[in-house]
Description:
By secondary structure, the protein is α/β, with parallel strands linked by helices. The protein contains 20 helices and 12 strands. It is elongated and about 115 Å long.
Amino acid sequence: MLKPLLAQVKEFKRSSILAPVFMVLEVLMELAIPLMMSSIIDDGVNRGDMGHVCRVGALMACMALLSLSFGAASGRLAARASSGFARNLRRSMFANIQTFAFSNLDKYSTSGLITRMTTDVTNVQNAYQMILRMCVRAPVMLICALFMAVSINARLSLIFLAAIPFLALCLALITKNAHSAFLQVFRRYDDLNASVQENLGAIRVVKSYVRESHESDKFQQACDQVYRLFVKAERTLAFNAPVMQFTMYSCVLMLSWLGAKSIVAGSLTTGQLMSLFSYVMNILMSLMMLSMVFVMITMARASADRIVEVLQETPDLKEDSAPLTQVKDGSIRFDHATMRYHAGGKPALRDISLTIASGETLGVIGGTGSSKSTLVQLIPRLYEAAEGQVLVGGQDVRRYDLQALRSQVAMVLQKNTLFSGTIRENLLWGNERASQQQIEEACKAAQAHDFIQAMPQGYDTMIEQGGTNVSGGQKQRLCLARALLKNPKILILDDSTSAVDMRTDSLIRQGLAESLPDATKIVIAQRISSVQHCDHILVLNNGEAEAYGTHEQLLEESPIYREVYLSQQKGADEQ
């Protein structure tokens, strides 16, 4: 687990090394001060030598200033290293997520990935900063203070040596029990974030159905689950404080009792006893710091496991060792293609064989759940066929460089997505170097130019997150214009005109034919009118090709197609 995490320190290695170095110097300055105090009492005050008191006092002040400087430098470097470490972790996680295939993304919830990149990274960042400072300071101070205490009085120092193993055993038991509890806590955090994300994303639906109280209750339940698990974890960690207090005060009482007897016996001076008290506080503070480190590391360990899981996730799609970078044309062939969402699971697509010539238009129709979207997602290799082949431009899609393949395939998905920014910025996703004339031509073909011009700032109108300030039909046409700007060899329209009227749908089809005359087009639709003019039509039923042919052929040969056509015609006549 540590190796993939430490690999993210990168350019902050120097700060990560210097921070503990300065911390060690700070500790050494602090530990020298009790010895000087002992000297002031025994050699200065008791003997009436004020010169010695002043000289040693001035040296103590210098050491205190040096300790302060070293501590400040260590803190600054540790903060820089931990913040940079967290930044690199988030970058690497995000970069790796971008390489995931859809099958990889199916393993994680969106809220879970967000929690890992925010809460979990913050926990690891805090633990890393604490490791650079306290995890160095505490052992160094513990060892040095023990050495100093032994040099003053070895017999009394045995008190500390007996306390350390007892405390270490208690901390180990506490840490072991708390780790599993924190793992459950962070899993519930995912559910909590999912509840918030779902509610805010669908807030208009929630309000229209007056379900605010239901959503509040659901969120309260998620909060209660996190609360109960946190209480369970913290209840285990709560034993840390009483164990530390018991150890600390036991050591102080023992030292006071035995130290007083030693002074009476003449084997220990007053100054030495005061130094021992200083060192006992240093030792006990070190143990307290170590216990805090254990608590933080226990929490961070659960977060680190989740982060490493994402960092070490490898894309299910493997690229060819010598990938093709050019797509010859837009021809597509499915050769007995079968696709499963999970290995060994039920096929979503079964034994599909189909040839689409370059420049041809294919319509795809079928009932809900017939795997229409799954079929077209095999073309840009968003998913991969478990059996058989999918060929584009005469080559198996597995032979292509993914970026080269997907740059020649434009998809207007069933769920249209616009991003925060202007309309122009959203359209430039299709071609970031597109001119204003090209943008307007694409929007005219998609029947979007007129409503954009009617907006207050035209193409510079801001789109809110998720495109909430445009209608469903407007969103579909903007997404279609964005795809047209890509000038692809293959254009896939996944029910992308469902929110526009019949006349606009007809104008869009005409605009597509004029804008991309040589591109292969695949049109997935629920309306027969959207596909009846295609060169060929594929009818899918439960993941299998039920029928294939022209509109006229399917009316004669396919009961499913004929039934859909007649039901839609009847509905149109009744209107």
